[in-house]
Write a structure and sequence with these properties.
By secondary structure, this protein is mainly α. It has six helices and no strands.
């Protein structure tokens, strides 16, 4: 199973890095997933992510407190609203808009109910 966890971790890091430059592709959730995969496959890569100067704090806050920083919450909600707005502008069918609205509202509500990070 270790090779599968390692492959999943590497794929997650790749998607997370792509999210740095691609709008609407989140970076932090993929890095958190990568850390979880590396915890099961590569202590060296897990430690690298855990202590990373950029990704490490979000990974530690999530693991220790289940917390999401307020700025990340706002960015997530804004990205969801922009995605839904784009769907409206594109004139997607009402059935698709309904499914998208339910999913985005559910995820947005979940994100907003997570605690803020201890640092604020």
């Amino acid at each position: 199973m270790r090779p599968l966890w390692l492959a999943a971790g590497l794929a997650s890091v790749g998607l997370g890095l792509a999210g740095i430059v691609l709008p609407l592709l989140p970076t932090t959730p993929f890095m958190i997933l990568a850390a979880a995969c590396f915890a099961r496959s590569s202590p060296r890569l897990h430690d690298w992510l855990w202590h990373h100067r950029i990704f490490g704090p979000a990974i530690r806050d999530w693991r220790q407190y289940g917390a999401i920083p307020p700025l990340a919450k706002r960015a997530s909600i804004l990205a969801m609203a922009l995605a839904f707005g784009l769907s409206l502008l594109l004139g997607l069918r009402w059935e698709i808009l309904l499914v998208q609205a339910v999913v985005l509202l559910t995820m947005g509500g979940w994100i907003l109910t997570r605690p803020d990070t201890p640092r604020g």
